[in-house]
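Kindly inspect what follows.
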Amino acid sequence: MKKIILSELEHFFTKEFGANKWMDFLEASDYRAVWESTNESKFYTVIDIIIEAADRTSMKTLHFLEKFGNYLALHTTEVINYDPACGDVMSLIEKNEEKIRNLLLFFLSSDTEVELTIKRVSEHKLTIQYEDELFLPGVILGFLKGLTDQCNDKNVEITLNTYSTGLKSKISIRRN
């Protein structure tokens, strides 16, 4: 998963900001060794790389994370296999709960089991709830927005609840 995410980050960054800016980022950052490492257990460093990349652009970190998450949903079939004509984003998310859980685990700050709840509230309303120590829902938010963009289901509401120590965030995605 690490190599897939880092490869997609390179493609995204190069597409958005140019190859020269990407090379400048790699040369100026402390992450070249992490980038070239094949050690899959260092999940936390990937979010560090993404945040550092965001800091090197004119974008706010949350916006960068959202755009990257959206890019992942649109371009990375290794994360979730979707049918562009699926028509029902609710079923797509429910069917891929384990892959979404793995993606969340990848971006969270610990290697512990992710408490994730996906609950269909009504025909067009879905609630996703998880605990995030870093409290950075941007990648997941962008990823879910990307999934809703891929489907023809425009009458959908996804509520993303994130919990951290003493903090709570609720974000809704509505398409209609």
In short: The chain has a mean pLDDT of 70. Residues 105 and 112 are 8 Å apart (CA to CA). DSSP finds eight helices and four strands in the chain. The chain has one domain: 1-176.
